[in-house]
Amino acid sequence: xxxxxxxxxxxxxxxxxxxxxxxxxxxxxxxxxxxxxxxxxxxxxxxxxxxxxxxxxxxxxxxxxxxxxxxxxxxxxxxxxxxxxxxxxxxxxxxxxxxxxxxxxxxxxxxxxxxxxxxxxxxxxxxxxxxxxxxxxxxxxxxxxxxxxxxxxxxxxxxxxxxxxxxxxxxxxxxxxxxxxxxxxxxxxxxxxxxxxxxxxxxxxxxxxxxxxxxxxxxxxxxxxxxxxxxxxxxxxxxxxxxxxxxxxxxxxxxxxxxxxxxxxxxxxxxxxxxxxxxxxxxxxxxxxxxxxxxxxxxxxxxxxxxxxxxxxxxxxxxxxxxxxxxxxxxxxxxxxxxxxxxxxxxxxxxxxxxxxxxxxxxxxxxxxxxxxxxxxxxxxxxxxxxxxxxxxxxxxxxxxxxxxxxxxxxxxxxxxxxxxxxxxxxxxxxxxxxx
Length: 436
Prior knowledge:
Helix content is 77%, strand content 0%.
């Protein structure tokens, strides 16, 4: 009997997952298993685009420089990161129940991606038409809309991923996307470093490109073949949100995972303090912005797929390793500072690169562990609960600014290094969920 010709998506899926039988599925339906190659590639494509867009609209670097260039007050610039983190995480406990009421949650993700695209395009329009306080307020408003939309995407994606891609392949999908996304960001960083055009024009153009990326990703994701899921428990409101807190008491592993993730936020909070250590390297010059963006993008390019493959074997071990790596990066930075090397041309980028490697692994590891750990009917709720708790932790991160102002950036980095080590230790106590 002649062999049935395979679809290109099946061949690509087998190559990317190192799987000689793409139809062997661990925990998804037979119908979803048949569509898994196409679903896998759609997840990779849509996530690659949105992750690239995230890199082009980075509040810590890109938007803070943009607001400075437009003459926005420093007080408004200081609100960028809190609005971004709070808006992306805190609403999730309140939106998860409504998303659960949707039989097919891909539409929530696609709509959220489209809204983020429109918000990014609005930011680009602001740079062309406003300046000063008005520009700052308009950018903050657009960022708030983008962040809330991102919260909806975060809750819905893990649930759709769990329904359409089998266990053992999910980390590869998210890791591959994390590895592909930096290509666009690297190109942007190189343009900034080479200064081949007006720098404000470059940043404005990057915002426009990010908007298009999000809109295209929405269309790709909407094409997923997602089976209808359970919608029980779809009531919304504060009562339902507070009711979800009981899972912290009922599921010890969930509580431990959230604690580990909270401690590992050190890898996300530390970069600005690394910059402060470098004498004369913390200015607002766009060439420095390009170097920082480049270091972060390169880390994602070389490590995303690797972290994803490792996460499919053991996401628990990935969380442990990234905690240790993040602590090592901050310890290296402190060593450079003590040796008087923090202002050199290579020391700061090296430390930032290693820290970015660790943070990339944290993102892939935590996503994979949560999807594999959560019961299928509670993935959205667990995701929202974890993200909301972490949102509160990140808002409280403002205390580190006070530590830095009193004791210096070095002391703050030492605290972050201790947090990363603590995160690795807490992750060690998690149950092993991988396929190894």
